[in-house]
Design a protein that fits this description.
5-stranded mixed beta sheet
């Protein structure tokens, strides 16, 4: 069509073409609409330009408008092309059939042949598609339009991609329209260049306005690429958009992009039926075949039907397909088949080979994050064991749960402790039950172990207590990893609401509600065993669904590196019990403390610096230098039962491989500590101080996990960002050397006779108060309580009675003697009473500190005195010497009856906090030793009050060097003169099965009254 230059029509067409060069769809449409009002001859140019710019919906709309005004064959051919571009191949094919009845030019026939080829390919009629493309090429050549042959080449490439044959790389031609982006992405996908294809499609959807007609094709390609790069969670979020774009019927017919490597709908549908356990329907639809995908489908069907030998044969054929993805899938499922047949070694070999192929595929990615995401989503040997054990639980029920526990335990990787971990095979249920029973025997009645393991598409929870409960959650590892990654990236300087939202999201992902419901009703303590990314979850801050509480406040939490570490850590902790605490802020001071053996608790106040890129080079910044993680692991912490890392980020760790994690916590446990308290992120200063101080205070009364729970409760009115970072790792048991009975009494008011801190009664004349105050300050600095006569008595109190009680409950009496003392009658009465107490207690009790040369009374004159300068140190030294059994020593309550040669033994009770000297025969049996101890100490077996409806029952067991002494007629050979006695308490008339430290069965006042009444005669 000839256009007169300078005319309105020429100006409009010029404006349209200028807008087309700029990619301005709106400008093109408006300019051509103006030109069309002048001359309808521009209709074809209008619609074809819109089509070339990717504005398919607008092109279809304008084409229908022009065709409503007249039946133009050229426009009808263009409409068929538009419908084909919009993936509406059914309508496009109908247009082709109608137009071919007309007389067409060679160019029009070529264009229709291209449309027909794409429609045939959509229906998987590849021979017809090839024939149509050949015809299109002939027509273009006859029409003298060789420039269109490039389009035929791209169509053939797209056809090869859809058909699943290997194709060459696309050239460097830059994609300019969504259609070209789709073609290039499909080619890259076939070359296993998923990352590049995903980046291309991401640029397409973010840089171009996708027309409604192309939206489904673009979304589908993007979804497939997300799945192939192991981002199934993100892919699932696109499914609603897919349904909206094409309808649920179309989506239901899509091939499964996660597994089906070529779009053979029948086999894909069969595989979905197998997954849905519709085996009869699947068998009826399978038919005959010989392709690798057919063998894979046949193998999956045989596996589901229990025909394992037949499944193995088909999987082996499928694994020789030559296609990496299909081979990896076939090998993985072949390993599953061997595992279900009880051949664990063969299963592990095939799982390992499958993961090696997945690793090779991931190595093609340029981005390390994409590589890591793909490897996480690829099931390995550990995942294979867990999935196989879970399938057996599904088939055989709870009797197979021990095998699943063993499989999850085996997935925990290299243990932190140096001992060898001997695990049975997860397929040997009898051995697995024995192993689990041996481990479970050491769990307190109020505690369970919560094991978690995430396979690529499911999260497994195992609640291990008196019975085992299995809870599963359908969640993709990519979703978990992404949420936990964002949580690890959170910093205290960010908005706390962000952390709160992440914790809520995480609680939903791991189905915390289901886990809490599965907990036994009397359980209040949870030891968590979680590996991989789950080890980074701050469980204490997770909100409990349906409540306003947090998990760390409703339950006492701790974490274990693996279930096998439970017993070794308990044994280690038992040797490290005590109440002496050392606080260090300097590296030199830490080295000095390590050379002593007088402390059982260590608190390190230093700044933690966590190096994410090189975790071995993370360090603790002390006031006088640095200590690296590697150096920390080489220190000797074997004397410390509890190590508190007060540093920020001290609880952060870095993953190595799949489960091993390096960090300060691992280093401290490797160095010999039984338990470590650390922070996952930088805690707010005031809140951190309150939590750690409360934890130290509560350790004297509670097990470690409850001590931390109570400490967190003291700052629970603050946002979880301030306290949820604190976590306990390792043994959750008691730190104090006090036994259950003694801890019960501590909970009920800390009666003075049971205090572990020595108490000193200071007696002095009023004019010597300055010296007394000085000595008191020095004693308090050494963790010794000092009583200053009437100064300690409350106003209005009975001074004489208060002094008598203080004197009776003191460990030592110190008399400050000077020229001012003889004139003080109170002092004379005090030292006389102290002298009598020393005779009764049969141990050193009265000490003299001479302030001048004033003569001593005759009873005191023979005694050695100590100087005021070193009086505090001398008293502490005497205290430690007296406590060679670690507890105050007293004579037996009942004097021994002579009846032959006897020997003195020290019966030590950590429960009562005392040691009593008991006279026993030189040669005795276990039964005779029990009788001698019972008779000498007058041990009660029951204490009942309140009309006999409420009480406590007591039982006892003797130990020497942690080995029980049998109560029988066998001869006892005592290796030392110290024998330990354990007191076990059972409530009468209260709830049973509450565990050693669960005291809610009786009221606090009732407990105190019963315990004091039963054991007062054994207390000083």
């Amino acid at each position: 069509m000839r256009i007169e230059p300078g005319s309105p029509l020429a100006d409009a067409v010029k404006a349209a073409r200028s807008a087309a060069l700029r990619g301005n769809v709106l400008g093109v449409d408006l300019a051509y609409a103006k030109a069309a009002k002048i001359s309808p001859a521009v209709a074809h140019d209008h619609c074809s330009t819109l089509l070339n710019l990717g504005a398919i919906t607008k092109a279809a709309q304008r084409c229908d408008e022009y065709l409503s005004a007249g039946n133009d064959t050229t426009l009808r051919v263009l409409r068929a092309q538009i419908r084909s571009a919009a993936t509406d191949h059914t309508a496009a094919e109908q247009d082709v059939r109608e137009l071919r009845r007309l007389k067409l030019t060679e160019l029009e026939q070529a264009r229709l042949a291209r449309v027909a080829a794409l429609a045939a390919a959509d229906f998987y009629d590849y021979p017809t598609a090839e024939s149509e493309l050949d015809a299109a090429e002939r027509h273009f050549r006859r029409a003298g339009r060789p420039e269109y042959l490039e389009h035929i080449g791209r169509d053939r490439l797209l056809l090869d991609v859809r058909r699943g044959t290997r194709v060459a790389k696309l050239g460097d031609r830059i994609a300019r329209t969504p259609i070209e982006f789709l073609q290039r992405a499909a080619a890259l996908r076939r070359e296993v260049r998923y990352e590049e294809a995903l980046a291309l499609m991401t640029r397409c959807v973010t840089s171009y306005q996708i027309e409604a007609a192309l939206r489904f094709a673009v979304l589908y390609e993007l979804t497939v690429l997300l799945v192939m790069t192991r981002q199934a969670g993100a892919a699932r979020r696109l499914f609603p958009l897919l349904v909206a774009a094409a309808g649920p019927e179309v989506v239901s017919r899509l091939p499964d992009a996660t597994q089906a490597l070529s779009p053979e709908r029948r086999l894909s549908h069969v595989r979905r039926l197998i997954a849905e356990d519709e085996l009869l329907k699947a068998e009826g639809m399978l038919g005959e075949g010989n392709s690798p995908l057919w063998h894979l489908t046949a193998a999956e069907l045989a596996h589901a039907q229990g025909q394992l030998d037949q499944a193995v044969l088909h999987f082996e054929v499928a694994s020789r397909s030559g296609h990496a993805e299909l081979t990896a899938l076939a090998l993985r499922e072949l390993g599953d088949t061997f595992a279900d047949a009880g051949k664990e070694d063969l299963a592990a070999q095939h799982w390992e080979e499958s993961h090696r192929i997945e690793d090779t595929i991931a190595d093609h990615r340029d981005s390390p994050s994409v590589k890591l995401r793909m490897l996480r989503a690829a099931p390995g040997v550990r995942d294979g064991r867990v999935r196989a054990a879970a399938r057996r639980v599904h088939r055989e029920g709870d009797r197979a749960l021990p095998g699943l526990v063993v499989a999850v335990e085996a997935a925990r990787g290299t243990p932190v402790l140096p001992h060898t971990r001997e695990l049975p095979s997860f397929t040997d249920l009898r051995a697995a039950r024995r192993w689990l029973a041996a481990v479970r025997r050491h769990l307190p009645g109020d505690q369970v172990v919560w094991m978690m393991h995430a396979t690529p598409d499911r999260l497994h929870h195992l609640i291990i207590g008196r019975r085992v409960t299995h809870v599963t959650t359908d969640v993709h590892i990519g979703d978990l990893t992404d949420t936990i990654r964002r949580l690890r990236a959170w910093k205290p300087k960010y908005d706390k609401a962000i952390l709160g939202a992440l914790l809520v999201e995480l609680a939903g992902l791991i189905a915390l509600d289901d886990v809490v419901k599965a907990l036994p009703p009397k359980v209040t303590r949870i030891a968590v065993v979680a590996g991989d990314v789950l080890a980074d979850v701050p469980l204490a801050g997770l909100p409990v669904p349906g409540t306003t509480d947090f998990l760390g406040l409703t339950h006492a939490l701790s974490s274990l590196p693996c279930l096998s570490a439970l017993r070794p850590l308990q044994r280690r902790s038992r040797k490290q019990r005590g109440d002496e605490t050392a606080t260090v802020a300097e590296a030199a001071e830490l080295q000095r403390i390590l050379r002593t053996t007088s402390f059982q608790r260590l608190r390190i106040n230093a700044h933690g610096m966590h190096d994410r890129m090189n975790p071995d080079q993370s360090w603790l910044q002390f006031d006088d230098g640095q200590v690296s993680v590697e150096a920390l692991a080489k220190l000797d912490f074997s004397a410390f039962g509890t190590v508190v890392l007060g540093a920020c980020e001290s609880g952060m760790a870095q993953q190595r491989g799949r489960d091993e994690r390096t960090g300060f916590v691992r280093a401290a446990i490797t160095a010999g500590a039984a338990a470590v308290v650390a922070a996952r992120w930088k805690a707010e200063g005031e809140a951190a101080r309150k939590v750690l101080d409360a934890f130290d205070r509560n350790l004297a009364r509670f097990p470690r996990d409850r001590a931390l729970q109570h400490a967190l409760g003291e700052v629970a009115d603050r946002h979880p960002a301030d306290w949820a970072c604190w976590s306990l790792h390792g043994d959750a048991g008691v730190q104090t050397s006090a036994g259950p009975l003694r801890r019960r009494l501590r909970k009920n008011g800390d009666p003075v006779p049971l205090e572990t801190r020595p108490k000193v009664f200071l007696s002095f004349a009023g004019k010597d108060r300055e010296h007394a105050e000085r000595l008191r300050a020095e004693l308090e600095a050494r963790n010794v309580n000092a009583f200053l006569d009437e100064n300690e008595v409350e106003p209005g109190g009975n001074v004489a009675a208060a002094i008598d009680e203080a004197l009776a409950t003191s460990d030592y009496y110190v008399l400050l003697w000077s020229a001012n003392t003889p004139q003080r009658e109170w002092v004379a009465g005090e030292w006389t009473a102290a002298f009598n107490l020393e005779m009764t207690r049969r141990r050193a009790f009265l000490f003299l500190v001479r302030l001048d040369e004033e003569p001593l009374p005759p009873l005191l004159a023979p005694r050695k005195h100590i100087d005021l300068v070193d009086a505090a140190d001398r008293l502490v030294a005497v205290w430690r010497s007296d406590r060679k059994s670690e507890l105050p020593v007293f004579p037996q309550p009942v004097p021994p009856t002579p009846g032959g040669p006897t020997a003195a033994i020290s019966v030590r009770s950590h429960d009562l906090g005392t040691t009593h000297v008991v006279m026993t025969p030189l040669h005795l049996t276990g039964a005779a030793l029990y009788r001698a101890v019972f008779d000498a100490l007058q041990l009660p077996t029951e204490q009942v009050t309140f009309d006999g409806t409420i009480g406590m029952r007591f039982s006892y067991e003797l130990y020497q060097q942690n080995e029980p002494i049998p109560d029988d007629e066998s001869v006892v050979e005592l290796a030392s003169d110290v024998v330990d006695i354990a007191v076990r308490v059972e409530s009468i008339g209260a709830s049973a099965d509450r565990g050693e430290d669960h005291d809610e069965g009786l009221e606090v006042d009732q407990q105190r009254m019963l315990l004091v009444a039963a054991f007062r005669h054994l207390l000083p």
